[in-house]
Write a structure and sequence with these properties.
Blueprint lengths: L1 E6 L4 H14 L5 E6 L10 H17 L6 E4 L7 H7 L4 E3 H12 L3 E6 L1 H13 L6 E7 L3 H6 L1 H19 L3 E4 L8 H4 L7 E3 H15 L22 H8 L7
Helix pairs in contact: 1-9, 2-10, 4-9
């Protein structure tokens, strides 16, 4: 089984750290391959930069030539997940929705630590839109941005711990999700210091995709995730134009 980890930004170092974390949780026989966008932001932290990232992610998948069995969207806004599910015949899951699904399985109420105040509204919208609103008990913001946290992880660790502890003690959260690529992997060090499960989206996403691949569920032939009708799009990336013109009816 090959899982394609798709990073929605242009940072090679972030892609490498995300892929390394994913490989820690992959079962024997599962290969993690990674790709990233060729244009866009180093850290997607606004609605506008996310729109650019979504287009670049579709381009990256359209241009990817090797085979894969599933896609893990490794950008914590879960950018372009719905579009990729529509266009592709393989399972697609976003790292934050994966974390939320797991949180609902191990807790009645969960909280989320997010990087940067500007991104908090986007995270809340995505979680509520995916149906997790009734179980989302709290959210705490750490740092001015994901870029700052990623650049100084040691300083970030204490802030994240303080935020997570507040979610437990003040909001009654029974699990804590660490959202954002800048926070990936920090659950290893935080879990011994917290009394509730600390959940990482990359770890959850790998396991969920392995299960979906093994289930061999068919691509929907009806509804919004069925393959769209062929469309002729002009003045876009040639590989992406080809994907729209000839949607893939079977695994790549």
């Amino acid at each position: 089984m090959r899982i394609l980890l798709l990073n929605g930004n242009i940072s090679t170092s972030v892609t490498e750290s995300l892929a390394a974390e994913a490989r820690m949780y992959a079962a024997p026989g599962t290969e993690i391959v990674a790709t990233q966008c060729s244009r866009g932001a180093a850290f997607v932290a606004s609605r506008a930069s996310e729109v650019v990232a979504a287009n670049a992610m579709l381009e990256a998948v359209a241009a990817y030539q090797d085979q894969y069995d599933a896609i893990l969207v490794a950008i914590s806004f879960d950018t372009a997940v719905a579009a990729l599910r529509e266009m592709l015949p393989v399972p697609v899951i976003g790292m934050t929705e994966a974390a939320c699904h797991v949180a609902t399985m191990v807790s009645a109420r969960f909280g989320v630590v997010v990087p940067g105040a500007r991104s908090a509204a986007v995270y809340r919208e995505r979680m509520v839109g995916n149906g997790f609103g009734p179980r989302l008990a709290g959210m705490r913001v750490v740092g001015p941005s994901a870029a700052v946290l990623y650049g100084d992880p040691e300083s970030a660790l204490q802030s994240i711990h303080t935020a997570a502890q507040a979610l437990v003690e003040e909001d009654g959260c029974e699990a804590v999700i660490l959202a954002g690529a800048a926070l990936v992997g920090m659950h290893h060090r935080l879990q011994p210091r917290l009394p509730v499960p600390v959940i990482d989206g990359i770890a959850c996403g790998v396991g969920m995709l392995e299960t979906l691949v093994r289930l061999k569920l068919p691509k929907p032939q009806y509804g919004s995730y069925a393959l769209p009708e062929p469309a002729q799009l002009e003045k876009i990336d040639p590989a992406l134009a080809e994907l729209f013109a000839n949607p893939q009816p079977s695994k790549p």
